[in-house]
Specification:
Blueprint: H1 2-16, E1 23-24, E2 32-37, E3 40-44, E4 50-54, E5 65-67, E6 72-73, E7 80-82, E8 85-87, E9 91-95
Length: 96
């Protein structure tokens, strides 16, 4: 009985929690990369809305950034090349 109630509560919580798994397209068209903090980039220009990308990798002000995938979602692997290292994305958000 206790397990059933716990499972029901967990399911309800999962269904009511907003998802943060945004997806973006045309990311390679972005022409400007702005470092917001040591783990966050703002991609601007090109087609579509601006994009905020968060990662566990360290991004320095002088980092060389290359977008490897044109279309991707949050928690995707091998999205960026930062100073020669392939980097995964933790969270991606479209800025309208």
């Amino acid at each position: 009985m206790k397990t059933t109630i716990l499972a029901a509560c967990a399911t309800l919580l999962a269904l009511t929690t907003p998802s943060q798994a945004d997806c973006v397209i045309n990311a390679k068209s972005k022409t400007t990369f702005t470092r917001i903090d040591s783990h966050t980039l703002l991609l601007q220009g090109g087609t579509g809305p601006d994009i905020i990308i968060k990662t566990f990798a360290f991004i320095m002000q002088s980092s060389s950034i290359t977008v490897l995938k044109d279309d991707f979602c949050s928690f995707e692997s091998e999205v960026l090349l930062v100073d020669g290292d392939v980097v995964d994305v933790n969270q991606v958000t479209k800025v309208d």
